[in-house]
Each structure stands twice: as structure tokens, then as C-alpha cells.
């Protein structure tokens, strides 16, 4: 589905969750460089993100402005506050990217169930933090974005085909693949693909484009600070894509008339392609594969062989 009109990020205002590091930091930097105000929403900022915030703390005639809002994306009240602050600071919201995500750490993982030693998910909590962050947060943020676009604050114009707005969801090649080691992450990204496809028709009727970017294996802290995930890769065979490549793809999702509502742009190392809804061949090539993935399955089988796996041992209250 194609866009009905042009869209330029210059002069717009964006809300980006997870902007304190990785892909979303690079996307934020690119938006600011293109003249777009940004509210950075995250639990904290890494040094490079803090430096970026300092650079754009004050708007001038030649550059936009950035503000930081400390945000726990699992807390719906904080998600609402994020939009309130964006309206207070900038007077409007044009672009929303619920980009924050985690990659199945042991503390919220299918293979370390609630009640196990490594899990922070409470046995009586009724939820997994992994799904709260990777699935529920983008769903709720998208709802809030649509409500904002249709009922804007401060008297600004509502979304329409002549006044387009954007929701950009960060999905993954995991939305097409299977991985025994990270089933909750895979389930969440399959869900994101379905959400993007399902909301695609909003653009033609309301001017609200919901589309997505599907990164491959990207060199960010999501990987590099998790040795258990780095074990999937063979440095001699596998190739990283960069967060800057993904950020460029994300900008295309906002501005390119060919990447309309419901479309998903896959980004690998020096390559992009559209992910088809049906009969898609799946991701392949540089930046899309890890050679030792199957080897990691043996670790899963080892966990399952442990005496009492999955049985309730103690009540572990969530520390999130």
C-alpha cells in the first residue's frame, strides 16, 4: 500500500522509546540531523545519547531540539506521560517509534520460568517482562499514538491524508524465523509483524501510516553486552549490520512513498528488501544469519534436563 502524499521529517516532532542506546539512538541522531524535534524516552541514556541530548538541548534557527523523559515502557502511566511531555515541550506529535526492546535475557526467558533462580518474573505476577517490553509496550504506545493523532492537544490539526502522521514499529527478522533459544522474543516479533500488517489500512482513510523496519543482526548493546547471545555468531563467517544502516531504513519507512502502511522493510548488512505478507522467501545474506544458532539448542536441552525444571520452587517477586 503506498503513501497518499509526501512526508518530510524536517519541522516534525517524534517520540522514540529506547532512544538511549543502539538502533533507536542512531535513529534519533538521524532525525535530529534532519531537523526533527525528538523526545527521547528510556530508563537512562548511554554517554553517546547524553552527548546528543546536550547538543540539541536548545533549539536554534538552524537546528531542532531534543528532550529526555525517563520512561519505563512497561508502565502504561509513564507511556501516557511521555505523550503529555512531548505536547508540553513541542506542542504536537507527528511521529511515534516504540523502539525499546530486549533480547530474551535469562531474567525473563521461556527457559528460565517464573520461580527459577535466574528469573525476575514473579510466579504470581501473571506476566513476562520480555513480552511487556517487546509486545505489549509497542501495542499500547501505538494505541496512544493513534489517539493523539486523532485528538491532538494544543489545537493542532488532526491526522488526515493531507496531514499525515507516522507510527514506526521496530520488528525483526525474528518475526519470520524460529529460534528455540529465544522463543519469547520470536513470539513478540511475529506479533509485531501481524500488528503492522493489520493496521496498514489506516493510512488511506486517516493519514496514519503504521509500518515497520525488520533489522537483522545489528551490532548494538542488545548483542554485544550479552555473551550468551554472542555465542550464536562465528566471527569468521557472520557479518554485522550497523545501527546506522537501520536508522536510514527507518527514515525511509517514514518518508518513502513506496513504503506505505502495513509494509515492513528488512535491513541487513548493505542490503534492504520488502518483506512480503505471503510466500516470502525469508531473510538471507549478509547481516541476517548466525552460524552457531543450532549449537545453542544444546544449552536449552541441558536446562530441560535439570531436575525439577519448570516446577514452582519459590515465589520470586518482580524487580522491574
Please tell me about this protein's structure.
It is a single chain. With 320 residues, the protein is an alpha/beta fold. The chain has one domain (13-304): NAD(P)-binding Rossmann-like Domain (Rossmann fold, 3-Layer(aba) Sandwich). Helix content is 35%, strand content 13%. The protein has helices at 22-33, 47-55, 76-90, 129-150, 183-198, 202-206, 221-224, 227-230, 243-255, 293-304, and strands at 13-17, 37-42, 66-70, 95-98, 165-170, 208-215, 264-268, 271-274. The chain has an 8-stranded mixed sheet, with helices on both faces. Strand 7 and strand 8 form a beta hairpin. It is globular, with a radius of gyration of 20 Å. This is NAD(P)-binding protein. Pfam families: adh_short. It comes from Periconia macrospinosa. One of its GO terms (cellular component) is cytoplasm. Belongs to the short-chain dehydrogenases/reductases (SDR) family.
CATH architecture: 3-Layer(aba) Sandwich
> What is CATH's topology name?
Rossmann fold
| DSSP summary: helix tally | 10
Structural class: alpha/beta
Question: Major sheet: order of its strands?
Answer: 3-2-1-4-5-6-7-8
Tell the overall outline.
globular
Tally of DSSP β-strands: 8
* Overall average pLDDT: 90
Query: Which residue ranges are poorly predicted, with pLDDT under 50 across at least 5 consecutive positions?
Result: none
Helical content, roughly? 25-40%
Protein name: NAD(P)-binding protein
Keywords: NADP, Oxidoreductase
Family: Belongs to the short-chain dehydrogenases/reductases (SDR) family.
Organism: Periconia macrospinosa
